[in-house]
Amino acid sequence: MQYMVGEVQYGGRVTDDLDRSLFNTYCNLWVREDVFQLGYCFNTTVTEFNYHIPEAVEHQRFLEYIQTMPGKDNPPIFGLHPNADLTFRLKQSIEMINTLLDIQPKEASGGGGKSREEEVKDKLEKELLPNLPPDFNPLDVKEKLRTLKGPKGLAESAKKEEGMSTIPLNIFLRQEIERFQMILTIVRTTMISMIDAIDGTVIMTADLVDSINAIYDFRVPYKW
């Protein structure tokens, strides 16, 4: 029965190897000899519904019991944390909102007779680019971190690495600044490229089109 259910009748429709492995795990957990015990319960944790095998022999009794099952199972039934349902619903809602935004007309003019591209260009030039922090100066960062002292009671090693402090918090701060600078570079470059593409000075690529659509829909571009 495990093979027929997990590999043929239902598992035969599963194409992903990980999904098949997960399905077989549940199949081996629920389709087992223990189900022949009286009062056998499928869920070991306390949930809103008690999944058990009815103590009956009539087919109709089983159908009636199946009709009482909830339409949506709780995550603990599958051995998951209750927050798994919250995460799934949040992801589902975000995907639905993104789909609604994606199917909105893109060619219609916005307010004031401006086109979609013109509105995005104005937003980039007047709001987003001016509010973007300036790039970090590597020399200034290196000098400030070299003189930055660590927490009280934490002695700094006499060893220096390229003139940088060896205090763990300072090293972590330097790494975070480097990562943030990479993000600043990507965001600034994308904004400038979008403006140039709208002006026609550079080629309008698919990535730039997606970024323009995201800015127009008040979303974060995927590249960011």
Short structural description:
The protein has 224 residues and is mainly α.
Name the descriptors:
mainly alpha, Helicase, Ruva Protein, domain 3, 8 helices, elongated
One letter per element, helices H and strands E, the order comes to HHHHHHHH
Fraction in beta strands: under 5%
Provide the gyration radius in Å: 29 Å
Summarize the main sheet: none
- What structural category characterises the helix and strand content? mainly alpha
Shape field: elongated
Extended strand count = 0
Put simply, the count of helices is 8
Number of self-contained structural domains = 2
Helix content: 40-55%
Poorly predicted regions:
158-162
Q: Termini, distance in Å?
A: 49 Å
Mean pLDDT: 83
